[in-house]
Every structure is written in structure tokens, then in C-alpha cells.
Amino acid sequence: MNFFNKNKQNLLVSSNLNIEGTCKNFSELSVEEIASIKKIKLENFKNSEIKNSFELNIIDHRSFHFLILQNKNLIAYSRLVPPSSNFKNLTLERFCVANAYKGRGISRILIKLIIDKAANLFPREVLSLSSLEDTKLFYEKFGFSSNYFTHDENGNLHYFMTRKSK
Question: Radius of gyration over alpha carbons of the chain, in Å?
């Protein structure tokens, strides 16, 4: 399923939904985009421990940031953390969609954009993430599997999931 076509600025664009999807390094993010990212994360992650983790850190600076915009407004966000001493695998984090856009297929657009870009940037890496039980089936539709090891993360049950490169 191809949602986007590339335009002159190398952004991925879906004309029928007036949606743009892009991947940026931290240094490419504008002050406005950083503020929008913080806002959408606060909307999606209400746990106070998570709220405290929204301050910018070194991981943000070395991650790839995925933004889905509609009419220049951020409607979905996630970051991809390259493997390192802190992250054994390529790791997908902070996957979120603005509440007003949930149930409209935006999550599918965002995950497809991430999977495609990850395959280009890190063709041999395993992509990993932590999923709530109610989002586990969504990720499975995109090739993620779980060893069913669950853990408590900020008071919520999570599954460690991985997706092998193809």
C-alpha cells in the first residue's frame, strides 16, 4: 500500500488527504516543530513519569524524527533511535497520533513511512518497539512479532516486539 508520492522537496505527499510525511534529523527540526512534538506527546502520554521524559535529551539529537502533517499542522509523530550502547536494536519510540485524527488511518501512514525509511537507512537491523496490549495487533499487521515477554512500563503492561528486515 503506497500512501505517498515524492515531491520536489523529497517529502512524501498524499494529495487526496492533503497530508505530508517526512523524516528529519533533530538539527532539521524547527522550534515550532519541536513545540508541536511536545504537545502531541503530552496529549498521548498522560502518565506523569512520561511527561517528565519529554525534555530534550541526547537520544533526540541522534534519532530520526517522523512527522505527519496536514495543512502544515502536526497530526502524528514518532522517533527512530539507531542502535547503540543504550539501544541494542533499532528502536521505534513515542508513536502517537493527535486525538482528533485517531481512527482515520494516520497510524498506518506513519508506520509505513517508518518501516520504509528504516529499511533504507538500516537494511539489516531488527526494528524493535514496546507496545501496549491494545496496540499489539496493529503492529502485528505490519510484521512485528512478540515473544510475549511482557513488562510493566509506567504502570502499563507492554509487549516487547520486533520486526526483521526483509
Answer: 15
Q: Which three cell numbers stand for residue 73?
A: 499542522
Distance CA 74, CA 127 (A): 24
Give every CB contact of residue 81 below 8 A, 6+ residues apart in sequence: 59, 62, 63, 87, 90, 91, 92, 93
pLDDT block averages, 10 residues each, the chain of length 166: 45 64 96 93 69 64 95 95 82 94 94 96 93 92 86 77 86
Q: Taking phi first (over 0 means left), then psi (-120 to 50 degrees means alpha), and beta for anything else, what does residue 4 get?
A: beta
The tens digit of pLDDT for each residue in 9-39 reads 444 445 456 899 999 999 999 999 999 999 9
Identify each DSSP E strand in 105-155 by its residue range: 127-132, 145-153
Q: What is the pLDDT of residue 139?
A: 96
Beta carbons of 124 and 163 less than 8 angstroms apart: no
Asked if residue 77 lies in contact with residue 66, where contact means CB atoms within 8 angstroms, the answer is yes
Residue 26 is given by DSSP the state G
Which of these, 66, 71, 72, lies nearest to 92 by C-alpha position? Answer: 66
